[in-house]
């Protein structure tokens, strides 16, 4: 598995890790000496605007503030410097649709039912030809049930925020049909398969083709004097990797191949759009009344010899697929701090936002309020789950379950669907690139983490 990475990539990553902490501390500056404090949660006259910024297919290493030697991300570096920033964040699964669904609901895929990107049933035949092969009749028919079940969930953040008078807007990636299925008041994605709707349609234009639609949404909310929730999930740095030529030329001399240069350039292109969004909110005088939350939906390691991703990243149970920095910025309310130890999850985003607004947390949420220091310290594990890209039932499609602790991570393959793979254990604090499986050396730790995983699944719903 590890041999699939080129030597030059391994060398670059390992070398960069040895200086990661020093680089990060320099960028964060004085923040490192001030422990995170729970933000003020008293009622205010005007609730804060909330902006979720989501990167699409980007490794946890691929930012300036995370120590990358070549990729430049000055706007996200600045956001990290001004945020409560967790460098050991995770998403519960390493594929777009289920990861995004977990971010907006605060629950695991096995609860919201969006297990992967496409649903198949016995007897389905996929048309492999053409770029729109997924528009065959089985997909909208099968996925309609998933969307219908998802639509019944009451824990999507836009639905919950209506209680506080929020307007909510969707831009960018959105797999669940029309934007209204998530409770958004307005959005760019129509989700009609007959018109090219699958994972964002018109929403995928944001960032790549300008930011005007997003700006108009903000203007509407301000004209109505309403707080807004903005879902900014651009199709960046996701393939196709077709960055502006000026950025490509910048990275070609630094990268081992053109494929890598294009990916690096896409990371900076995404960063530029983040700067444009934050600048617009600043120009409107709303920065101090806006909560920014950053996360990436899943990881990506670019192959050097073709345009595809490496098997250790997207769709894999490894940290190159699951790990992401997570940031929370509310100027004057959340103390900036670089946390390099605590384990946090994208599942924490919904309960943290609701806690900031003094709202009751739904019992079904799987995350915690990360501003509650006791809850953060008492957390003993995070969990993950990965399914087949084309899924049917939970048991029929489950590939892996994971447990992340301090300092160990267990990868537990499903014996039915992955019969030839073995359990793996890594010390992810000493071995962040998961180079050495230590499962045979620590059978007691393996067993303990297996039990934690099984316990976390006791309340899971029946297959559907």
UniProtKB/TrEMBL annotation:
It comes from the Bacteria. Coiled coil: none annotated. Keywords: Calcium, Hydrolase, Metal-binding, Signal. Its cofactor is Ca(2+). Residues 48-358 form the Sulfatase N-terminal domain. It holds the Pfam family Sulfatase. Belongs to the sulfatase family. PANTHER family: ARYLSULFATASE FAMILY MEMBER (PTHR42693), ARYLSULFATASE G (PTHR42693:SF42). This is Sulfatase-like hydrolase/transferase. It comes from Maribacter chungangensis. The lineage of its organism: Bacteria, Pseudomonadati, Bacteroidota, Flavobacteriia, Flavobacteriales.
């Amino acid at each position: 598995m590890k041999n699939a990475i080129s030597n030059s990539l391994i060398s670059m990553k390992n070398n960069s890790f040895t200086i990661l902490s020093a680089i990060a501390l320099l960028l964060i500056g004085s923040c490192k000496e001030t422990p995170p404090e729970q933000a003020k949660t008293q009622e205010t006259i005007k609730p804060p605007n909330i902006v979720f910024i989501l990167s699409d297919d980007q490794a946890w290493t691929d930012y300036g503030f995370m120590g990358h030697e070549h990729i430049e991300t000055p706007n996200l570096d600045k956001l990290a410097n001004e945020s409560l920033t967790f460098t050991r964040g995770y998403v519960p699964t390493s594929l777009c649709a289920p990861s995004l669904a977990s971010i907006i609901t605060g629950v695991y895929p096995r609860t919201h039912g969006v297990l992967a990107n496409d649903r198949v049933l016995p007897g389905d035949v996929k048309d492999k030809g053409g770029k729109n092969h997924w528009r065959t009749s089985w997909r909208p028919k099968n996925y309609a049930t998933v969307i219908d079940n998802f639509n019944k969930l009451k824990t999507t953040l836009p639905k919950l925020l209506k209680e506080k008078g929020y307007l909510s807007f969707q831009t960018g990636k959105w797999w669940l049909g029309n934007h209204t299925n998530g409770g958004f008041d307005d959005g760019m994605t129509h989700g009609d398969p007959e018109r090219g709707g699958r994972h964002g349609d018109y929403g995928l234009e944001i960032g790549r083709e300008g930011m005007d639609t997003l700006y108009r949404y903000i203007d509407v909310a301000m004209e109505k004097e309403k707080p807004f929730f903005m879902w900014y999930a651009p199709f960046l740095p996701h393939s196709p990797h077709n960055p502006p030529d000026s950025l490509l030329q910048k990275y070609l001399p630094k990268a081992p191949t053109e494929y890598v240069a294009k990916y690096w350039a896409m990371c900076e292109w995404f960063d530029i759009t983040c700067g444009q969004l934050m600048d617009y909110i600043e120009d409107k005088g709303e920065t101090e009344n806006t909560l920014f939350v950053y996360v990436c939906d899943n990881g990506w390691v670019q192959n050097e010899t073709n345009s595809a991703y490496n098997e250790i990243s997207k769709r894999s149970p490894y940290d190159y697929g699951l790990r992401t920095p997570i940031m929370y910025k509310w100027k004057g309310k959340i103390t900036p701090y670089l946390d390099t130890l605590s384990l946090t999850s994208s599942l924490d985003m919904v309960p943290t936002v609701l806690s900031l607004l003094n709202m009751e947390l739904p019992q079904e949420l799987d995350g915690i309020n990360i501003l509650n220091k006791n809850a953060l310290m008492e957390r003993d594990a995070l969990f993950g789950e990965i399914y087949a890209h084309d899924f049917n039932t939970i048991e029929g499609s489950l590939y892996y379950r994971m447990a992340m602790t301090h300092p160990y991570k267990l990868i537990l393959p499903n014996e039915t669907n992955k019969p030839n793979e073995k359990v793996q254990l890594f010390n992810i604090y000493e071995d962040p690139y998961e180079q050495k499986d230590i499962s045979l050396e620590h059978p007691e730790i393996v067993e303990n983490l297996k039990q934690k995983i099984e316990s976390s699944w006791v309340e899971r719903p029946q297959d559907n």
